[in-house]
Structures are given as structure tokens and as C-alpha cells.
Amino acid sequence: MRQWITFILGFLSFLAVIIIILVLFLGNKPYTDTEDRAIERAKSEQLIEEVERAYVYTTVNASVTVLGTNDKGELTAVFVPEGDSEMQTLSLTDKITAQQARELVLNEMDVKKILHTKLGMANEEPVWEVAFVDEKDTLNYVYLSADDGQWRKRILNL
């Protein structure tokens, strides 16, 4: 009897692990597919040569930000909107970097942990979105201009 209980518990544990892996993989697949399509679109229009990173950025409209280098070797961001809308490019030379955006937030806010830093377009302006948890364990989002590092928007204490 004890062997049967051990077998059943082992089997259920194995099954639970398999289900968790499937849920994580299948749940992330739409994001991965969207990012892959955006990368292919940016490359096919020769806006970017080498891709370093891509991620979904959502404000009013969802888009994918593709970061990498262009044919001149300059660090570039390509903003690929949903559908067939026109893509925008931004040379990141002389712009605020992700690290600088994080440092600005760390210097001005009570940050416990930074969750992410993403570049995107908001109101036709490139901004860094920095999401973080503060010392009170509340979620916060701040938006900094990628041009000059000025604060554009703060969503605090969520």
C-alpha cells in the first residue's frame, strides 16, 4: 500500500511539473510570436541589421520595440506598431540610456526593486518606462524622456 501511495504522489508531482512548464511556455508564446514578427518586419525594411533585444511596449496602443544596430553600426530603436501602421526609428546616439534612466529614478524615488526598464513611444515622444516596487511594497511606473531625461509621467502607489 505504501508503494502505491509513493507512486501516486510521484506521478502527480511529475504531472504538475509538466503542466506548469506547458502553461509557462504556451502563455509566453503570443509575446514571442509578436516579437519575432516585429523583428522580421524591421529587418525586411532594412531599418535594423543586428537585433540585441525586442519587447512588447504597451501604452494606449501596443507596439514592439526592437533595439539593435543599423547598417551604419549606430545603436537604433525601431518602434513596430500593431498591424500595418508606419514604423518609427530612433537613433540612440546622444539619448538617455536605460541605465541613466534607472539611476535618475533611484536618485529621486524610494526604490526597493526595479522590475523593468523599457523604451517606447508615448504621445509621439520616445520615453523610458521604469517600473519598480518602492519601500512600501507598492507598484510604481515612471516615464522619462529619452531625449533629455525629464519626467513625463508618474503613476505611483498601485
Automatic annotation (TrEMBL):
<feature type="domain" description="Cell wall elongation regulator TseB-like">
    <location>
        <begin position="38"/>
        <end position="81"/>
    </location>
</feature>
<feature type="transmembrane region" description="Helical">
    <location>
        <begin position="6"/>
        <end position="27"/>
    </location>
</feature>
<keyword id="KW-1133">Transmembrane helix</keyword>
<keyword id="KW-0812">Transmembrane</keyword>
<protein>
    <recommendedName>
        <fullName>Cell wall elongation regulator TseB-like domain-containing protein</fullName>
    </recommendedName>
</protein>
<dbReference type="InterPro" id="IPR041401">
    <property type="entry name" value="TseB-like_dom"/>
</dbReference>
<dbReference type="InterPro" id="IPR046350">
    <property type="entry name" value="Cystatin_sf"/>
</dbReference>
<keyword id="KW-0472">Membrane</keyword>
<dbReference type="Pfam" id="PF17881">
    <property type="entry name" value="TseB"/>
</dbReference>
